[in-house]
Amino acid sequence: MPEPGSLASTRREVVAGGGACVVAGTAAPPARAQEARKGTPNGAAFPVALVVNGQRRELDLDTRTTLLDALREHLHLTGTKKGCDHGQCGACTVLLDGRRINSCLTLAVMHDGAAITTIEGLGTPENLHPMQAAFVRHDGYQCGYCTPGQICSGVAVLDEIKAGIPSHVTADLTSPVALSADEIRERMSGNICRCGAYSNIVDAMADAAGMTDAAGRQG
Amino acid sequence: MYLRPSTLREACEALVEAPAAILAGGTDFFPALADRPPPPRILDLSRIDGLDGLEIIDGVLRIGARVTWSRIARAPLPPCFDGLRAAAREVGSVQIQNVATLSGNLCNASPAADGVPPLLTLDASVELASSSGTRCLPLAAFLLGNRHTARRPDEILTAILVPVASPDATSCFLKLGARRYLVISIVMVAVLLEVAEGRVRSARIAIGACSAVATRMPELEAALIGASPAALGSLVRPHHLERLAPIADVRATADYRSEAALELVRRALRRCDGAAA
């Protein structure tokens, strides 16, 4: 069974300028584990360690804080956007241990010790991730608000295809998944762009994936 | 109060003290609150070992409480699980499938829960643990109504148990929504079909989002026994679906749901027939 965890090495390859990726243990220190067992009162600070874009970050959070708010309000990584805050738009998409998730739908405390990659960790203005560069080249946005989520999702989509994970439109479930515009469109369904930049997003992803065009012809 | 026990026993003991909102994937926790404040107690299952198994033992697939939709979609399971895996690929979005669990889908007990119709056709049960022991309930006995289950406040759903159907069984799942992703289903149909010597040996059909709880269609199932697989679509009649009680809401009128359910059942039967050939 291809486990999502197998994507982790792929993701590390594509983290631009990520340096050493700190792998933190998921086991909480005894004192903290004890506290979690007997309970933390609402409003009390709870220590959470996240490895964000390769750096270990320690936070004291209200346990009801979403991962999205932890990133934006506590770590000031405002690249990740709050669109609907309901899991319906995909603007808050980040990579959790290499898999894409909606950061608005999960509590930060549930991911103590996990590795999070945000748009800031994919590349920098001077050293863009290939997916970021492709979005710029193909004008894969208009207002830009959904773009960080689209790009994080796009990176994960290419990893999922590489890992051979079929989608709803994959016709042959036994052979490797072929890259095509249909596959890209299908897999990007969790990211909404209200400006309607979809066709350019497909072109950008096809380009980043090494396809010559979005008609499905392989480059 | 936030509780993150590391054993099932501790989790059950915490629920004896007072009930809590139980989080497996937790993706529906905030959306379901709407504008209400979070509940006073949250029990996080993320650190309990033994809840993330997905394996077939002695002819029964055991799906642990923390197994995500993505893992079900990607698991190499026999064809009788194709319908369940199809539901796993269409629920929410991939971002949600990577976190949300099938167990959570059942405990939320939405009339439009995508996991329920396929599991009803598979005759699934749920395992409930508490400090006083463990019990199993058939899924149909677990789901009591809209957002209402037989889970006691001191119980945790620890696994879904699914007997593996005959290797000849084929299954499928069709869902109608305003679009395929990130929508609440208007109608869902799951079919599991066994065909022997060119005739239907058994048919199990469940329809969701057309009654408070998704339900099997025994009258229709009986009408299909012995029929030729190619003819199944044309055997479906409106009176076969009289158990449904569709409502009108923002997504569809009741009449539209009835029509769509009929058409979706016919399509699902034709699709299963094709897979069996």
Automatic annotation (TrEMBL), chain A:
Its EC number is 1.2.99.6. It is found in: Periplasm. Keywords: 2Fe-2S, Iron, Iron-sulfur, Metal-binding, Oxidoreductase, Periplasm, Signal. It catalyses: an aldehyde + A + H2O = a carboxylate + AH2 + H(+). Residues 46-122 form the 2Fe-2S ferredoxin-type domain. Pfam families: Fer2 (PF00111), Fer2_2 (PF01799). The keyword Electron transport does not apply. One of its GO terms (cellular component) is periplasmic space. It is an enzyme of class 1 (oxidoreductase). GO terms for molecular function: 2 iron, 2 sulfur cluster binding; carboxylate reductase activity; metal ion binding. It comes from the Bacteria. Oxidizes aldehydes to the corresponding carboxylic acids with a preference for aromatic aldehydes. It might play a role in the detoxification of aldehydes to avoid cell damage. Heterotrimer composed of PaoA, PaoB and PaoC. This is Aldehyde oxidoreductase iron-sulfur-binding subunit PaoA. It comes from Enterovirga rhinocerotis. The lineage of its organism: Bacteria, Pseudomonadati, Pseudomonadota, Alphaproteobacteria, Hyphomicrobiales.
TrEMBL record, chain B:
Keywords: FAD, Flavoprotein, Oxidoreductase. SUPFAM superfamilies: CO dehydrogenase flavoprotein C-terminal domain-like, FAD-binding/transporter-associated domain-like. PROSITE patterns: FAD_PCMH (PS51387). InterPro entries: CO_DH_flav_C (IPR005107), CO_DH_flav_C_dom_sf (IPR036683), Diverse_Substr_Oxidored (IPR051312), FAD-bd_PCMH (IPR016166), FAD-bd_PCMH-like_sf (IPR036318), FAD-bd_PCMH_sub1 (IPR016167), FAD-bd_PCMH_sub2 (IPR016169), Mopterin_DH_FAD-bd (IPR002346). PANTHER family: XANTHINE DEHYDROGENASE SUBUNIT C-RELATED. One of its GO terms (molecular function) is oxidoreductase activity. This is CO/xanthine dehydrogenase FAD-binding subunit. Residues 1-167 form the FAD-binding PCMH-type domain.
